[in-house]
Amino acid sequence: GKLSRKSNEVDDSVKLSFVNGSGKVAQVFWVRGPGDAVLYSTLQPRQTYDVDTYLGHTWTVRDPSGIVLFECQCHGPGVIHIPAPPIGPNPPFPIPGPGFSNQPFQQGPRHADADDSPVRCKICFEGDPQILFQPCGHAGFCWGCAQKFVECPICRARITQHVRMFL
Fold first, then answer.
1. Residue 18 pLDDT exceeds 50
2. Which residues belong to any copy of the RING-type domain (predicted)?
């Protein structure tokens, strides 16, 4: 894929693969800055899109109506599975597999200091759950707890990468 504009803060290029596992069209955007997202690809169902990007860049996947399915910051090469549409009134969520967990994302804006949020770290039950483990895809850990593990506490897979999620 085309190489996104290099950021001043990063020097390393990496490859990301977006796999549309849903039965619907999905759009892949590079987030250049607040309110500034650049459409990179419109994926048909079961289509894959490879893109060369840089560490630290943020990517988001939306449905054609503009609803954000998920957003992640690039911390290394990887495969990102675009979720199947949910059944019922639940919010969109990533499917199990490399890159993302099967836990639902909370809809609406969240802030790291949102003390009234019922969503907390699965380990300490206090921190903001913003870390996802790769390659297993389990998520829901705060940064402090995530740094303590070499193996995923859920499935015991070796952790090769921590991905910061934006919920």
1. yes
2. 121-156
